[in-house]
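Try this one yourself first.
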């Protein structure tokens, strides 16, 4: 028996075994994020109560206000049309900010985030999944509200590529701001039971002071000043520029659509929300092990 030959070949054999048993490299964050989006959507649509509330609440409010207020607020523009555009903006905030702030707070308390953080999944994949969820649900909700607004309340759909492009960048900036702000705001929710009570009133108040439930120019000056500091006011104004006649710009607070300011404010809130996410997001509740 050639003992020296066996000893010499042993390390090589061990290296070969290690090489053959090594698994394939883990998928990248983007691929895992797409997969996570599919999982988030499945979980979302399995929660019937959440689905019904998310999609039905804006519709119910549209039917109520559309039935009560039918007068014209400007030549050729009824309050129904004005309100329909505002509810599309509100629906985007509900699908992004409100939905994420509540659901992430619940996941944190239940320990879901802690378990996910202990897996090889990159943290970016989790957030990409949430972004994908928001984009899909916001698009669905906007499509539903557009269909109802156009068929029942004569909401003008964009008639040119320029207006559809405007809708696209306003939609993207609005969902981006709502998403990062919702993720960061979830850190202020200390328990799953209080999630709805801590998050929902914020959205309701913003709807009243941002030109959704009431015409923005009819609000008191101090209320307009407060509303203009938050993204919903600018998102609603931007969508009015898409769905209302161009001459309605004269009836806005500044007598114009202020598209550059809309882009600036929504971008600024996105950056602020992103910084807040990086500084405040926690995978588990403070004090938990």
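Now uncover the answer:
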């Amino acid at each position: 028996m050639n003992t020296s030959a066996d000893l010499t070949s042993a390390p090589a054999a061990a290296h070969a075994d290690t090489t053959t048993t090594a698994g394939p490299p883990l998928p990248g964050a983007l691929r895992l994020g797409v997969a996570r989006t599919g999982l988030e959507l499945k979980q979302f649509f399995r929660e019937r109560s959440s689905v019904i509330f998310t999609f039905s609440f804006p519709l119910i409010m549209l039917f109520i206000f559309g039935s009560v207020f039918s007068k014209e607020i400007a030549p050729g523009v009824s309050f129904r049309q004005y309100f329909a555009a505002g509810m599309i903006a509100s629906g985007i905030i509900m699908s992004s900010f409100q939905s994420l702030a509540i659901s992430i707070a619940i996941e944190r308390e239940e320990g879901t985030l802690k378990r996910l953080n202990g897996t090889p999944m990159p943290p970016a994949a989790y957030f990409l999944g949430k972004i994908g969820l928001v984009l899909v649900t916001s698009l669905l909700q906007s499509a539903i509200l557009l269909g109802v607004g156009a068929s029942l309340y004569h909401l003008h759909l964009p008639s040119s590529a320029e207006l559809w492009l405007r809708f696209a960048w306003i939609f993207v900036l609005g969902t981006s701001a709502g998403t990062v702000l919702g993720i960061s705001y979830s850190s202020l929710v200390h328990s799953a039971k209080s999630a709805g009570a801590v998050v929902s009133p914020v959205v309701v108040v913003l709807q009243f002071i941002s030109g959704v439930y009431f015409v923005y120019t009819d609000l008191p000056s101090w209320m307009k000043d407060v509303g203009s500091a938050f993204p919903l006011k600018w998102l609603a104004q931007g969508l009015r520029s898409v769905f209302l006649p161009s001459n309605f710009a004269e009836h806005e607070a500044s007598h114009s659509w202020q598209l550059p300011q809309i882009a600036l404010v929504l971008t600024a809130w996105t950056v602020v929300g992103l910084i807040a996410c990086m500084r405040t997001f926690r995978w588990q509740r403070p004090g938990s092990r």
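Discussion: The chain is about 70% helix and 0% strand. The two ends are 57 Å apart (CA to CA).
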